[in-house]
Amino acid sequence: MKKDKTPTACHLLLAACLFLVNTGAAENGHRLWLRADTSAQATVITSHIGATAVIAANELRKQWQGSPVILSVKNTLSIKDYGNEGFIINENSQKEISITAGSEAGLLYGAYHLLRLQAIGAAIGTLNISEAPKYKIRLLNHWDNLDGTIERGYAGYSIWKWDELPQTISPRYKEYARANASIGINGTVLNNVNATPQVLTSEMLQKVKIIAEVLRPYNIKVYLSINFSSPMALGGLNTADPLDKDVRQWWKNKVKEIYQLIPDFGGFLVKANSEGLPGPQDFGRTHLDGANMLAEALAPHKGIVMWRAFVYHPTDTDRAKQAYQEFTPFDGKFLPNVLIQVKNGPIDFQPREPFSPLFGAMQQTPVMSEFQITQEYLGFSNHLAYLGTMYKECLDSDTYAHGEGSSVAKATDGSLFGHKISAIAGVANIGEDTNWCGHHLAQANWYAFGRLAWNHTLSAESISREWIRQTFTDNEEFITPVAEMMMQSREAVVNYMMPMGLHHLFAWGHHYGPEPWCEVEGARPDWLPSYYHKADHTGIGFNRSSTGSNAVAQYFSPLREEFNHIQSCDERYLLWFHHVAWDYRMKSGRTLWDELCYHYDKGVQSVRKFQKIWDSMEPYIDAERFAHVQARLRIQARDAVWWKDACLLYFQIFSMRHIPYELERPVHDLDDLKKIKLNMTHHN
Ligand code: GCV
What we know:
Helix content: 25-40%
Low-confidence stretches: 1-24
Bound molecules: 4-O-methyl-alpha-D-glucopyranuronic acid
Oligomer: single chain
Strand order of the largest sheet: 6-7-8-9-10-11-12-13
């Protein structure tokens, strides 16, 4: 019989499917790194019926492709070593796998661990694993406002739909909880540290309660940022003085109300007397008085206070020294449920800063680090900047607090100073964009933060590789070059924005583009770039050595001396600590000016290289994500040239030297660049 050559609907469908396989199926990135096949039907045995154990079992049933798994919670001594959230995974001679933990939360993390091993092709050989988180509290900080906007958010509006709550529960909440649990995040601060008192109204708390209920089975507690003047704004009191008896009672009542609704509420995050926010100093009191008052209200419920050290006054002395000066005198005086939350660097999430000297200096108070996952100063969600390397750079920095080997990680995870509580926070880059983070590759920063919060000894590279493999493909032809590109990406941003310790060269009104020349009449000096770069005809950089502001003295020896001397100072921080002559000889043999030009140029060339790498990756992944990242890299390449030209042409006014002839020439005129005003509204 002659075959009919006319294509049927079936043929067309098949052709369409083959086309999609070849080119990569349409893909919007919504599934993050959680892409395992869910048709596994694994045998999972457990007698635990709590919601968290049920999630663990169901995740395994749907995704685990191997031997039967037995889940059990035990309180044996061997398990206690792994803390409440740790787990042990073993395989016996009958090829049964057991996940044993001290709590259902441990089972959940064990299940996700096993599934991750499977997803990255590492669930091989006889399994014999034990894990416990390095930090007890692993938090996201959302800078989400109650009106749905997000401060420094670049992935759309907030995922928290306060208008719809408590009646309507967005399916996103559960997806969010699952993604976080899969990387070990166990807490989230729902609202902006620039907090409105309204977050504590009874009506709002009913809404918070609903979110807490969705997150709870995933072992995620909710926390809130509070406004220090809430007793006045909400309670009608005429003061918020932390030593006032009525104020103290108001907070106790409010806390009680919260715990009646949310019995496992985590606690408060507080930004006080910082950037115009109210605080105890408004009433002649101290950070200590304020933090301890809240701690006292929360303690009976096992809640904590995370009091931020991001404080600085509008003076013309060195802003980098202020937090240390304000907080170290209170060391040892805070109540046991207070943690001091410190940004990774002494200023403010710049592309590169040395670690804050508060890490290591406050030894009798638990200090937690705050990292930015959102890229406020790193090109928003337009630029590729894999931050695993940046988090590691800070966590691995040696504070020398107890001699060599006193890393920031050890100074904050409780091990160096013997603290019972330990925490780490990351300012979320999550919004309602379909792909959650704006840039597909920015999902890696959320992932890397979670993985390092669980285990800060992991390498940034191994995290990037496991993330790529789960998110895109197991093809090494893709993983290796993309991982290399990610590993170099943050350094590239530092190079084209502010290399060698330069900082805060951002435009007024937003933190996206360059404006090293920015002068605003009447503005606080420490919100202006010239306060930081101090470029003049003799050189450039902020003298924080012993002949200058002496900020180096806030570090322990021998780091203090290392930073203090221009010859021994790590060149990555040179202009952070020194005002350096334009013809100073760098280790490369070049003059400072030439070296600066080389760094800016290198930043631009790196992004060009990323474009080439990415374009050659087209055959390996779906067309949609490929095109999206490609478009973002184009923006980044243009922005990198903008940054380079703006900074070099401007600093050239002072250096009066030419850009080395072998480097790319500027393509912009300084006067044109000075006219650029982006339409983004925000203070400084
Ligand atoms: C939440 C910087 C940011 C502000 C942010 C502040 C903070 O100044 O620009 O948007 O406010 O840090 O961390 O409190």
